[in-house]
Design a protein that fits this description.
By secondary structure, the chain is mostly helical. It is built from 20 helices and six strands.
Length: 480
């Protein structure tokens, strides 16, 4: 209504003024505002903000969608965060401003370093994509693609900033299974979707361009596979319910994850996008394989579609779920496998190391309090603090005790099942006949039970599978 009334008022005024109105008309020239100010020579081609107060980057003039999503990330407030931390020092500013860190620029004095201009505050597009001046001058002639590669030995990528004792993401990641390309699965097309970075992104329908997208060299599961450089969409729901004062929790930003980690669904949960393979034997004669469980962690945690069942109905239940897969552990896989904590010097009480959880080990071995990739240490040398984060276990010793008793119980039942299967293995197990016998199903369940971590992911379900398998072996083959 207001718009219509205003139009009528304008029409009446025009009629009243008559020739005066018409006589005052002149040619109107429309001029586009400049999209950017020419950066100083010392900036080495970095453009930075068009409007610092509005957090509008020069790149955002054209890439409006990316600009809008980037504004919701922690990168968009990186310099303010540093200022408010009370730790503003010169050597910190390099990772909170636009400069050559993270991109292919060879001019180490570009951007903020050479100008100290506020237009280069925060972690902007050019931190990953490199100087944008050439691109905006001739967009068709240059496409400044960002690299996806990560490594402490590289001068590009996330590792340029996300390293060091305060945030050793890359140091820990490089030691993890995600940081290594395993030649055998990487060479098989059916395995690449979970074992190489490029194929994982393709499998998830992510079509963004990056330098190594069409490279014949496989990337491991690098940062940009799990984390979205541009967006924080999938993390918002998690962050809304996260206690950000808890050092075990995710940061307030939610980590810019591509998928949520708090959804109990194999198709939507980030970790379970890959960790849900062959939790059940393939009984389809056309595709049947005699191979045992592969990566059944997701289904195990959720308590369904796991193992070989002999017509039994899970003791009358639709599913059997352990505490680790319930609301008591809202971050599910990440709740245990990404323990975050600080290490302090026992003598001085000073900060020594900030564990980020990117070893992805639920109970890592410790070396002077610092988590390591070693998996051979004694149980008493491991930290169980991730087990106490949400109050599931009273303290680390209680969690360690539950771990020991449950493991021994499961291994004892598994040994009994193997003894029974071995008695009929020669006659009842045939990997080539495309049929699943009771012995073959029981053997699958045995392999599932002794697979690393299975008894922790869901001890109740594993014990029930073993109980039913032992009973069926005795009944079908008349064993004692």
């Amino acid at each position: 209504m207001k718009r219509r009334a205003g139009w009528r008022w304008a029409a009446s005024l025009a009629g009243a003024l008559g020739g005066v109105w018409l006589g005052a008309c002149t040619d109107v020239t429309y001029r586009d505002r400049p999209l950017f100010e020419t950066p100083p020579a010392a900036a080495a081609g970095f453009l930075g903000f068009r409007d610092r107060l509005q957090n509008e980057t020069v790149c955002g003039n054209c890439h409006v969608g990316q600009q809008g999503e980037w504004e919701e990330t922690a990168h968009a407030d990186a310099f303010t965060t540093l200022e408010q931390s009370g730790s503003m020092q010169g050597f910190c500013q390099g990772c909170h401003t636009v400069n050559s860190r993270g991109n292919a620029s060879t001019d180490s004095t570009g951007g903020w370093v050479g100008t100290q201009d506020p237009r280069y505050h925060d972690v902007q597009c050019e931190n990953c994509h490199g100087p944008g001046l050439t691109h905006v001058q001739n967009p068709d002639a240059s496409q400044p693609l960002a690299p996806l590669s990560v490594g402490l030995n590289l001068t590009v990528g996330c590792g340029e900033c996300h390293n060091g004792v305060h945030h050793p993401f890359v140091e820990e990641w490089e030691q993890s299974g995600h940081g290594t390309v395993i030649a055998s699965p990487a060479g098989r097309a059916e395995c690449q979707g979970c074992h190489t970075g490029q194929a994982a992104l393709r499998a998830w329908g992510i079509t963004a361009d990056y330098l190594e997208k069409n490279s014949a060299t496989h990337l491991p599961i690098v940062c940009g596979v799990c984390h979205d450089p541009h967006s924080n969409r999938a993390s918002r729901r998690l962050a809304a319910g996260t206690d950000v004062d808890d050092p075990i929790s995710m940061p307030e930003s939610g980590g810019q994850l591509r998928f949520s980690i708090d959804v109990p669904n194999e198709e939507e949960n980030l970790c379970m996008k890959c960790h849900h393979k062959r939790a059940q034997p393939d009984i389809d004669p056309a595709t049947q394989t005699s191979r045992g469980p592969h990566s059944p962690e997701g289904p195990l945690l959720l308590g369904e579609n796991v193992g070989f069942w002999f017509g039994d109905t899970l003791s009358g239940l639709d599913r059997i779920v352990g505490t680790h897969g319930t609301g008591r552990n809202p971050r599910l896989c990440a709740g245990c496998h990404m323990p975050r904590f600080q290490v302090t010097d026992p003598q001085s009480g000073n900060f020594v190391f900030q564990a980020t959880g990117h070893l992805f080990l639920a109970i890592p071995c410790l070396n002077a309090g610092v988590p390591t990739a070693d998996t051979t240490c004694a149980l008493t040398a491991r930290t169980f603090r991730s087990c106490t984060a949400t109050g599931c276990h009273g303290d680390e010793n209680a969690a360690r005790s539950v771990f020991t008793v449950t493991r021994n119980d499961v291994l004892a039942q598994a040994a009994e099942l193997k003894r029974l299967v071995d008695q009929v293995r020669a006659t009842a197990i045939n990997a080539n006949d495309k049929k699943w016998t009771t012995a073959e199903g029981a053997d699958f369940n045995y392999q599932l039970a002794v697979k690393k971590g299975s008894f922790v992911h869901n001890p109740f379900l594993i014990k029930e599978l073993l109980r039913v398998s032992i009973a069926e072996m005795k009944r079908v083959y008349n064993l004692t």
